[in-house]
Specification:
With 319 residues, the chain is α/β, with parallel strands linked by helices. The structure holds manganese (II) ion.
């Protein structure tokens, strides 16, 4: 995978001078944003710098196996840092900091934006945005390799976690040659693949099972071939699951044969979130999501609209 060497040089230059570095993960953190941040964290630590990782939401317990995940600081109170990295954030609001700290996005501060969402607006002073990259951690890996910075076993495990989760354990269509090459290089650096697969894919809480049970039970297919399911606030209350436990269930819904694409609608506070996936080559779900003010990748996208879910029962007279 080739990165813009002009940007890499500029980042290398500002990194050399920096000591205090803040690394920002997006809200509702996933394996890719946490893996990217911690991958950077370990490398910067090894260089003798003072990195801090932050997220406005707390870390889900399934990421506990990732080295130094306990170092996450909840939210951000000041901008007193030499350099900032924002990772896997396709839009500024996903940091949860765009209103409290708009200076982060006006290109006055030393901000590096590392992302792989095609909707990314290049809000950083420096931007490494590669929409062909299967994960943000791939870009982090390539940047560290280009700058010849240290990649420890710990760093490699975190970076491989992002690649593993964003490719759905190498099953999604974004699993390309670069993804597997970088995965191999991370394994060669000592990444702990066994822990990743065990902790992330083979561990399911009882509340998650119950929530997924409801999602699967509510699944139906429209005459147009769209596979849909819905989850209400009540489903979360009754199963004791939280929103983060929805991660992954859309892939099950999407596995219904002859599905054009799949949508799960989730009722959350006063918004309804839509999560879209497709396995079809000729369907672009990010275009569908953008009709509702959302975005994402061609094969995986999402949106959020104000409102709540209401069941509609249709009756018709037949003879
Ligand atoms: Mn990602």
């Amino acid at each position: 995978m080739k990165l813009d060497q002009n940007e890499i040089q500029k980042i290398g230059h500002t990194l050399k001078k920096a000591d205090r570095i803040l690394i920002v993960s997006h809200k509702s953190p996933d394996g890719d944003t946490v893996g990217s941040a911690l991958g950077l964290y370990h490398s910067f630590k090894a260089m003798g710098k003072s990195p801090t990782v932050t997220c406005i939401d707390s870390m889900p317990p399934e990421f506990s196996f990732m080295p130094s995940v306990d170092q996450y600081q909840l939210g951000m109170d000041h901008l007193n840092y030499d350099l900032f990295f924002i990772v896997d954030c396709g839009a500024t609001h996903l940091t949860g900091l765009n209103e409290s700290h708009p200076q982060l996005f006006d290109k006055t501060l030393e901000v590096v934006n590392i992302d792989h969402h095609p909707t990314n607006t290049h809000y950083g002073k420096y931007n490494l945005v590669v929409d062909k990259a299967a994960s943000a951690t791939m870009i982090v890996y390539q940047m560290l390799a280009d700058l010849q910075l240290p990649i420890s076993r710990q760093s490699a495990t975190c970076l491989l976690t992002g690649l593993y989760t964003d490719t759905g354990s190498f099953m999604h269509s974004n699993t390309n040659v670069d993804a597997l090459m970088i995965a191999a290089r991370l394994l060669a650096k000592g990444a702990d693949l066994r822990s990743i697969s065990k902790e992330i894919f083979n561990t399911t809480k009882i509340s998650t099972m119950r929530l997924w049970g409801r999602v699967l039970k509510n699944t139906y297919q429209t005459p147009e071939g769209v596979t849909m399911s819905v989850v209400s606030k009540k489903d979360f209350q009754e199963t004791g699951a939280d929103y983060s436990e929805m991660t992954g269930v859309v892939d099950y819904v999407n596995s219904v044969p002859n599905s054009k694409y799949s949508v799960i609608l989730t009722e959350r506070d006063d918004v309804v979130k839509g999560s879209l996936r497709t396995l079809k080559d000729d369907v672009d779900v990010s275009a569908i999501a953008s009709q509702y003010g959302g975005g994402g990748h061609v094969k995986a996208a999402g949106f959020a609209v104000k409102g709540r879910l209401e069941k509609e029962v249709r009756w018709k007279v037949v003879d």
